[in-house]
Design brief:
- A two-stranded antiparallel sheet has the order 1-2.
- The protein has two helices and two strands; from the N terminus they run E-E-H-H.
- The protein is mainly alpha-helical and 89 residues long.
Length: 89
């Protein structure tokens, strides 16, 4: 049975995830978002561009924030699914 929950977003009823998905799938999806955020930070870390502007920093921060919010919600859902599975044993 599906348990669709909204992703963190400014508008309601746009993006959802199935909180009833297997815990491993939720965890793997969270990991994809976490890795994407880390890769963005690594690009900055290894950039030779010393002219990184405040506008560029704000755009990078906004992108990373979205990815980390998604990851947090998915990790929480994964943990809840895992706890439900453990209680069912």
């Amino acid at each position: 049975m599906s348990d669709f929950r909204p992703m963190p977003q400014p508008c309601k009823d746009v993006l959802f995830f199935n909180a009833s998905a297997p815990a491993g799938d939720l965890f793997d999806t969270a990991d994809l978002r976490m890795d994407a955020a880390l890769n963005l930070l690594r690009l900055l870390e290894f950039s030779d561009n010393l002219d990184f502007t405040q506008h560029q920093a704000a755009r990078l921060s906004a992108a990373i924030s979205v990815l980390l919010d998604d990851a947090r919600v998915l990790y929480e859902a994964s943990h809840q699914r895992w706890m439900q599975a453990m209680q069912g044993l």
